[in-house]
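Working notes for the structural subgroup meeting. M.R. asked for a predicted model of this chain before we commit to crystallization trials. I am recording the input and output together here so anyone reviewing the notebook later can reproduce the run.

Input as submitted:
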Amino acid sequence: MDYKAISLNPPSPLPDAETERLALAYLAKMTKRHTVREFSGQPVPLAVIEACIATAGRAPSGANQQPWHFVAVQSPEMKAEIRKAAEAEEAAFYAGGGGDEWIKALEPLGTGVEKPHLTTAPWLIVVFAQRYGLRTDGSRYKHYYVPESVGIATGFLISALHIAGLSSLTHTPNPMKFLNTLLSRPKSEKPVMILVVGHPTKDAVFPSASTRKKALTEILTVK
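Returned structure, recorded in token form:
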């Protein structure tokens, strides 16, 4: 494909005060985002999930190769299969496979082997990273900056879900190869995480440890 420029035709720049207002308004909205593990069974329309994943698909990627695939799971039977396999991996992890330091780091977050949210939430979105692409003749072509690209797209997705009024939980059982088998995804794709998506229950909680965010001065350097 040859390079062809398209005019951006940008709108007029907003006044600085309005730009700051919008940035602060988005910050305030995202400050209300919390990871929860208590999901209600309230349905979420497929159209909402599709719109949020479409937003993720607008993320920048290395060489614009968009090395990601999202599988949205609503089938109770499939969610049960995923939960069964994930809890088996979690049992091995908490039995010592994860190592003492890792397990200790998780203690303030209240995590454990049982993952009821995998079946109570209306949706699971499984994020896959495509290690390489496949042409129509079956030959491979290289993808560039795959972890970075998929990470950006996942960030877009989590933000879109929150803006849509939904809660989400990032779940990363280790290893996750069972997801390729259960969801019939090719070996060229690596499962990155399960996003549990839905509405929280009225008595949902989140760990106080998660409110301890680094100060702006710790994450920003201005030169």
